[in-house]
Amino acid sequence: WYGRLAHDTELRCLGWAVDTWFKPGGSLVDLPCGTGRLLTAYGDRFDVTGVDISNAMLDVARNRFAANPRFKFQAGDAEKLPFPDNSFDYLVSFRLMCHLPREVRIRVLCEMARVTRKTLVVNYHFDVRSPLMLFNRLFRKSAANLPYPLRERDLGAELAGCPVALMATRKLSWYERSSA
User: DSSP letter at 77?
Assistant: First the structure.
C-alpha cells in the first residue's frame, strides 16, 4: 500500500507540474525514467526521451511504451548527458537527487539545465519531520534517514551554483517530505 500511495502522490504532483509549466507539443526528457512508471503523466502531448543509467530498467520502459512512437529511450549518466546544449524544451527528474551527495547534485542539476531550453521539474526529498518520516523510523528503519540530507532552506544556495531560477516549490503531500 505504501508504494501505491507514493506512486499516486508523485503522479498527481507531476501531472500538476506538467499542466502548469509545460506547453503540449514540446520535447521532454525524463531522467531517470526507470521502468517508465511516471511516463503516463505525459500522455501523447510531448515527444519524450526517457534516460536511465540502467539498461535493464530501460528495457522494461521500452516494452511498456513500445506502441507509442512519441517515446524513445536512451542510456545515459546524469552527470554527463549524451545530448547537445538546449536539446529539450522540458526536463523532469523524480527520485534522483535524494541519492546524490551535494557536489554531485549540483553537477547533475547544471547538466540538466545545459540540455534544457525552458523548464525543469526536479523532485527533492527534504530532511524534515513528517508523519511519513516518523512511520519510517518506527517500521522501515532503513528508509527513515536520507543518505544525503538537504534542508528546504538550503535549496536556494545549492541552486545558485547552476544557471537556474527557482519558480516554485510544491510539497507532494501533507504526509511526505518530497517536493518538486
Answer: B
Total residues belonging to the chain? 180
pLDDT digits (tens, 9 = 90+) for 21-73: 999 999 999 999 999 999 999 989 999 999 999 999 999 999 999 999 999 99
| CA separation for the pair 27, 174 (Å, rounded) | 31
Q: Rounded to an integer, what distance in angstroms lies between the CA atom of residue 8 and that of residue 14?
A: 10
| Burial grade of 82 (CB within 10 A; 0-12, 13-18, 19 or more) | exposed
**C-alpha cell, 96:** 534522483
Hey, what's the cell of 121?
521539474
Q: Which residue has the cell 500511495?
A: 5
Is the pTM value of this prediction over 0.90? no
Per-residue CA distances from 41 to 22, 125, 130 (Å):
12, 20, 26
